[in-house]
User: Fold this.
Amino acid sequence: MSRSARSDSGNGFPLDLAGGDWTSLAAAGDERDLETWAARGLIAVPGAAEVLARFPGKPARLAEAAARFVAGDAARAEEILAGLAGAEAARLRSWMVRPVIDVLAFLPAQKRAPHGLALADSSDPRFRLWTVSCRPGSRIANRPFATLGELIPRGVKPDLIVVEMVEWHMLPVDLDRAPCPVVGFTADYDLHIQAVHEWLERFDLLLVTDTTEWRDVKKLVEAPVVTFPKVFGVRDDLPPLPDRERDTDVFFSGSVFHPYHPDKVRLIQELLARNDLSVEFVDGFLSDEAYLDKLTGAKTSFSFIRHPGAMPTRALEALAMGCAVAVQEGSSLLLYLGESEGLRPYPPGPGRLAQALAALARDPERERRARRGAARVRQLFGMRRVAGELFRAVAMLAALLPGRTRRPRRVAVPRRTVLAQGWLPSGADHETLKRLAREHVRRLPERVAAGEGARATAEVVREMVLEHASVARRVGPRRWGRRFVADWIALQGRLVDAEPDNLVHRFNFVRLAFHYGRLAEIARARRVAE
Assistant:
């Protein structure tokens, strides 16, 4: 039995939230097993509900009802559950029959792919989204250190709190006391672990897209962690595929020459070394129009991401524009599309990607398969469909939750997670980040009085130095006030004096001094480092 299947499933739902790696079960499970199809139904694999209908017994009916609801057939799902007794059937049905589900939603403010979950309320009107963002004109304006009482509109009682990309948002400081299930999706937890770890503990359920992420996040929290790949999508208004010659064999764009992704550089070198492939790549990001134009002129593209099984947004976009695409082995996209739709997996190892792309570019069936794949991606991964399926799946998961699981061990405060680029709080919103740093300073006395003195002081130093470093990047170091950073270096040095065995204080002092200090400060940092 799979680790995601339920050992005591007798008459209950056939999957266990404590297992949660439903992507692996859906991909590698036995086609004859109920659990395999239950997992596929909950992650919105097309046709899963129809297969589940062939299995006998109450667990199969529960799984079929959940799958049909996720797929958008609420009437049939309710009909199935109406004939079933038991607590799980009642909980599942209670979410299905609600005419309105109010969701306090921390989502990217823009209603566009690949992060367009704010379209859920237009996809499925039962979900009424109260979207929280720092972007001007948002339905609910977020701000540093906000509480739930300050964010939830008067008269609104949310049924759910949903956060897309936990690491991108400033969350309410009292999130652990939310009156409803709190569900979050995370993907860049590893990049922002110092800032996000204590927030992950405040969720009742966390979603990730693949097995490698599931293994990581499972170690960080006590709450259930579930794999759900369909979080990202493509524009619903993509232009039709043009009838044009595709002159480029391989096109790729994005962060190519970034020190965090040395493997990408090696892959590009392998491709450029081949004489039988014409390769074009862009180190950076193009406008939507230029990007789509490049894709429609290329025969193939590829995806390479640090979590190989995660949902590759660039592969979705390329395939939607008629490019055949190579993805890493184990990619969750392979649950929804295959080689007949122009999608080919490649294994790790030198030269393997280049071999896969060369084979795709020479395939006489490539054009036909890729056009079929484009139609399929636009159908399955249109942003409105993805948004509706995800929120309906979250409702089903909330019904299956065993109870409150939030057990935060530490006080959580909002922290800056980027220096100059990124999504927090809404792109290049420098004013909000400046307010965040100032709010840390303003709250320092009360945090010291509450016994958080050293930690609170270290966080203030961090926020202020990041803010000044961000300003220096924008206006230039000559206009940057040296005296400000000197004060913060000195304060960090006093923390080292007060707690000499605290490695966090020591590391932060060394880093600050080496980056921004003068000779005397650097000399002390060398002694501290030794």
About this structure: The CA atoms of residues 447 and 453 lie 6 Å apart. The chain is about 45% helix and 10% strand. Residues 248-381 form a domain with the Rossmann fold fold (CATH 3.40.50.2000). Residues 430-475 form the longest helix (46 residues).
